[in-house]
Amino acid sequence: MPAHGVVQSPVLVGRDDMVALAGRRLAGAADGAGGLLLVAGEAGIGKTRLLGVIARRARAGGFTVVRAAAFPGDAQSFAGLLLDLAAELTAAGEPALSRLGRGLSSRARAISAADGDAHHRRRLLVQDLADLLVTAGSGGPVLTILEDLHWADDLSLDVLGHLAGRLATRPMLVAGAYRSDELYPGLPMRELRARLLAQRLAEEIRLTRLTSVQTATMIGATLGRPPPASLVAAVHDRSDGIPLHIEELLAAVGAGAPTPQSGPAVRAAAVPDTLADAVLSRARHLAARTRAVASAAAVIGRSFDFDLLTAVTGADPAEVAAALRELQEAYLVLPGADAVTFDFRHALIRDTLYADTDLPARRRLHESAARTAAQRGYRGAFVSAHFEQAQRAEHAYRHAIIAAREAAAMSAHGQALELYRRAVRNLPPGLAPPERAELFAALGDEAAAADDNTAAAEAYRIAHEVAVGAGAARTAAALAPRMVAVAHLLGDGLDARVRTLRGALDSLDGVIGADLERARLRSAMAAAYMLDRRLDEAIDHAERGRAESLRIGDEEAVLNADATLGSVLVFAGRMDQGWPLLEGAIARARGTHQEAEAARGYRMIGSCASVLVEYGRAEDWLTEGIRYAERVELWNHRHYMASHLAHVQWAVGDWQTAGRTARHALADGRGGVTTRITARYVLGYLALGRGDWEAAAGLLGEALAEGERMAELQRLSPPLWGLAEAARLRGDHDAALVLCERGRHASADVADAAYLFPYLLTGVRAHLARGDADAAHAWSERAGALIEARAIPGTLPAIGHARGLVLLARGDASAARSALEPAAESWRAARRFWEGAWALLDLAEVAAATGRHAEAGRFLDRVRAGAARIGAVPLADAADRLAGRLPDAADRPAGASGRPAGPSGRDRPRAPWHPLSAREFEVAQLVAGGLTNRQIAERLVLSPKTISAHIEHILAKLGAARRTEIAAWCATIRRDPPPER
Known about the structure:
With about 1000 residues, the chain is mainly alpha-helical. Among the domains are: about 30-205, P-loop containing nucleotide triphosphate hydrolases (Rossmann fold, 3-Layer(aba) Sandwich); about 715-905, Tetratricopeptide repeat domain (Serine Threonine Protein Phosphatase 5, Tetratricopeptide repeat), CATH 1.25.40.10; about 920-970, Arc Repressor Mutant, subunit A (Orthogonal Bundle), CATH 1.10.10.10. The protein contains 47 helices and 8 strands. It has a 5-stranded parallel sheet with strand order 2-3-4-1-5, sandwiched between helices. Helix 6 links the parallel strand 3 (about 140-145) and strand 4 (about 170-180). Helix 3 runs antiparallel to helix 4 (about 95-110) and helix 13 (about 290-300) packs across helix 16 (about 345-355).
């Protein structure tokens, strides 16, 4: 092998299992069962080589093979990867593929004029593009190879995500490669990969570095002879087992005739991690014209076409063609998808040649590339990037603005944000204030859409300052609602947000033509007060904003105001007005394809009904809303509604389903804080209801901490109540009362009843447990007054329930019964399991106190049945404690928790799983099924520590020493176990 020659291993080393897997997936695709195969690994690890092997196998098997790649900077482009694929398809020999390529390019470049909001238009585009791609091919199987997905734009990746779910019934295999070491937070590919793997819509091959033995095999195959051990050790040490580094290192030191002395030469070679010196040592042997062409190609990018390269260099086409042949012979450049496209062999090679080009030359070449690309109709993102590198700020700004607006129009927020940032970096010094304010406002909008709220707040601040300085009162006022929205997410309190909005309203005094701004400021004021549950102020501003929006015909603002006002009205107890407003807003938003507003409406009506104890309404709207959000792909709304559906399922006593729904919402919630809080406190409720105090404290504490950071009643009050109830159930009544007082104070600040009602009963029970009926009565009066004032139907049973508990404690059993019976019936009608079950237990106490022991037993049986059905251990224990105080308790058979049953169970045989409790028997059955402690904990939504304690108790009660003995005992139990929980 000559010094500085081309080095490439003739065989693929260490990848046999991966090639075999790809072969199986190709066979499946040939039979009509396609899929998505992801190839992951660091730079130089051999992803392209593996894809090449897969492509050769596919062609040999009769597949049509098409390929495309993303390139640095594509994340700021619009459909860059798809357009590259379209170009490959258009150039294909088959007419069907050529038509597909032209259709794909035309649809991706078109800006839809369809009705509806930007999200609706973006979703239709994604669906159309996926529909086109799934038809690729002319009857035979297709392999589509997509390289460097870590650089891909989010529109292209959205399409890939849609395509993945449809490949299982198509003769198409998509193989996509990406750098695993460059999946930084915020990259579209990072999120897509996580979702596809979690949903099992893709498989992943992860390429690892070669071992020393594999390195020796590769060197031997490359050189055609066994290498000396010293050479292998030196190459492996310097290359870290990365195949590309191995090849370039061998080429750099000219290891054609390996000897024992070759090792020191390799160790002495100056080859950094980027391989710059190895690449440049080869490039120095190129002709001067070829080196110049290589520099121009590196400036254009990882991929380039012949015509653009010729124009940029200014050279004769024949000279450029000759230079490209030399670059191919040096294995620096490879032929691309068609006769006029070329790619650098690896991005590392392009980066090295680019860095070695003098800065003045680079700038000249960038400017030439930008001007030529602009004349030929290239996308604004590509053109603006080259103008920026050429230091032509005015041109870079103009093209970046155009591209950013195009991306924003299709909800490509990531690309739009980066393009607006480029425009800011290249801001012309004499830009007029209105245009400057518009730029920063747009930057803020895209940052907010991308959840970069800090950047959004700063951009809005600059835009506002510019508008105020220019005397543009309407422009400045229009920014205030957006400023307040991000300020809320960053933790600003209500007072600060209201000051901003009031200041904006005041600034419009006497300003003609500002009706639209005034109406939207009123709506923003209503939303601010609503989030803090200041209902009266919210209603006032919402009604005024809605009236103004109707008068000026701003339908989008009317929809938003209706959803806000409807939510506030139902929390204020005005159900007959609120629910119709919410339902009407959803219907109108759906009818006009305002998908974001429709999803917001579903979210608000469903969550309101969930909190306001209207569980039938909540189930209907949340279920429908989840389906709608899935269909229109508004995932944040979907997951939030799922977390509230889990709350409803907990409330009605469907605890097994609630746990599953909440866990899925937490896993799929993609970081949404409101979803995370809700799902965690639902799981915390389930844990406390099952007596798993450790898990309850962790989940509820995490939810409370996040709720406190948001400083919103609706986020912090539910987990705070869970902690109070858990403290009460554990017997820590002082702690329960402290937490209850915190909850009452938070609600009292805003005259809330919806979040307060559970605290009423927890506080009364805690006071009574401390033997202070007077304090319980005083607490009931303070908390009950707020609930009674709002008169929300679903919360009112708590008042009578609390009164009955106090009366019972004071010895007036008859009056207690009169208060508790309607409360219990109301909880039953509302399907509120937790309070309803405790109300039955309270009625059993009344019956026992008045000597009606059979009646008490019947109530206890109902409580035990409900507790056993869902695994409510503290409730079952409370029933057992009461049963134990009844006459002849020692003679009664065991109840749900292994203690004596009530009198009505006198003639009933003991539970078939005696001496275990119902929960212990459930754990025993899972042990018998071979599950580990962790698997049992996941199944029952308990902590592994709690499961270990249960198993210790089971072993002790059975006199057993091993898990196999538990399984053997379970096999002797012939009766059915308690219903699944």
